[in-house]
Specification:
Elements: H1 4-26, H2 39-93, E1 103-108, E2 114-122, E3 131-140, E4 151-160
Length: 164
């Protein structure tokens, strides 16, 4: 019977060695997880988490404020470009579609932009047959588009032929 006991001991001993071997591969020496964390360590982890969330919140707030300013600036630039195109178009119409006569006209376009055209006579000086007109066109963006509406003013001198 003596020969059975050492065999049982050796298989239990082999199982224990195998378990230790698996643990040592999973966790290097001295880095095995603790069974229970101390209360001071757990509180410090909670404090670190709160601080990191606060820093993250501040960082995201700064990013979102900057992004909103960029989008607002893009909207203003887009309105200015659109007002410039409309002012150029209106300036080209005066003297071709609309008569070139002194006075002030204004109106509103379909997309909410308002325009104003002022035509003033200019003396030709040496050439009595030619008549000149100082034309100023102002186009304003809709008031509800942005806080400060985009406004574009274009001015030119148009020469008209002799009166018939």
């Amino acid at each position: 019977m003596r020969w059975i006991a050492p065999r049982i001991m050796s298989s239990a001993h082999r199982a224990l060695l195998a378990a230790r071997s698996r643990l040592s591969r999973r966790y290097p020496r001295g880095h095995a997880p603790a069974a229970i964390a101390s209360p001071s360590t757990a509180g410090f982890t909670l404090l670190e988490t709160l601080v990191s969330f606060t820093i993250l919140t501040l960082f995201l707030t700064i990013i979102f404020v900057g992004l909103s300013q960029v989008l607002l600036g893009d909207r203003r630039a887009d309105l200015s470009r659109q007002a410039l195109r409309l002012a150029q178009s209106k300036l080209d119409e005066i003297g071709i579609i609309e008569p070139l006569s002194p006075g002030e006209t204004m109106g509103r376009l379909e997309d909410g932009f308002s325009w104003r055209a002022v035509v003033k006579p200019v003396r030709a000086g040496h050439v009595p047959e030619a008549r000149g007109f100082w034309v100023e066109v102002t186009v304003s963006a809709p008031l509800n588009a942005v806080e400060t509406p985009a406004q574009v003013t274009l001015t030119t001198l148009k020469i008209a032929g002799r009166r018939s």
